[in-house]
Write a structure and sequence with these properties.
This protein is mainly β and 113 residues long. It has a domain of 67 residues: Beta Barrel (OB fold (Dihydrolipoamide Acetyltransferase, E2P)). 7% of the residues lie in helices and 56% in strands. It is globular. It starts with 10 loop residues before the first strand and ends with a strand.
Amino acid sequence: MGTATEGTNEVRLVGHVSGGVQERTLPSGDPLVTFRLVVPRPERRGRGAASGRVGVDTLDVACWTARTRASAARLAEGQVVEVEGALRRRFFAAGPGRASRYEIEARRVRRAG
């Protein structure tokens, strides 16, 4: 683990799988398993608190290693999971140009509860 002056990029999220798991092979030949994780947002004082609405964040999770791909492939929609990893910005070809997206690069995926 790096020191505070070097920076840290670690996330731990617990939420439920939304939309199922996608398995594919990229044009580079690399296998990739992805899924969306819906995570409740902590209630903040003030905005929205009086309305009783609970916010959520929907995050894309990318599983690159054989271990995380195998773990993710066994997940079902609606299942509660814990994901540990790092926030990444991935660039890719899109139409005539390039695009990017932020996603969680999973280091560990496991069922929660």
